[in-house]
Amino acid sequence: MVSLEENWYPFKKRQYALRNKIQKKVRPFLTILPVLAGLSIVYIDETIIDTYLYRKHGRSKREKKVISKISGRRFERMSIVAGQVGGRFVAPMIYKQSMTRQFFVA
């Protein structure tokens, strides 16, 4: 009969391997952290607003159903990004293209 300890050991071994892997990734950030200690924290958030611009309803004489294709359907996507330092919003920006790394840094 197999004991509980024998079944538990491979799981514990994987946990330690994962923990060591994570610590290797975190170590460079921990060396930079004391340098950033005096700076204020900036919280950044991005939101996207999708708008479909078209008519949902048509007009006709009373009790007559409108059967037609809806033409002129337009789609617009607007993105907003802003930062917050303390209780103040800083650098709000509205744009219509995709947020890429180069666009964010600029």
Report on this model:
The chain is an alpha+beta fold and 106 residues long. It has 2 domains: 1-39; 40-106, no CATH class. 32% of the residues lie in helices and 30% in strands. It has helices at 4-32, 101-105, and strands at 42-53, 74-85, 88-95. It starts with a helix and ends with a helix.
Write the layout of secondary structure elements.
Layout: H1 4-32, E1 42-53, E2 74-85, E3 88-95, H2 101-105
Antiparallel strand pairs: 1-2, 2-3
The helical percent reads 25-40%
Largest sheet: 3 strands, antiparallel
Counting DSSP E segments of at least 2 residues, the number of strands comes to: 3
Q: What structural class results from the helix and strand content?
A: alpha+beta
Number of helices: 2
Order of helices and strands: HEEEH
- Approximately what portion of the residues adopt beta-strand conformation? 25-35%
Number of separate structural domains:
2
Shape: elongated
* Assembly annotation: single chain
Stretches where pLDDT falls below 50 for ≥5 residues? none
> Main sheet: which strands, in order across?
1-2-3
Radius of gyration: 28 Å
How far do the termini sit from each other?
65 Å
How much is the average pLDDT? Answer: 78
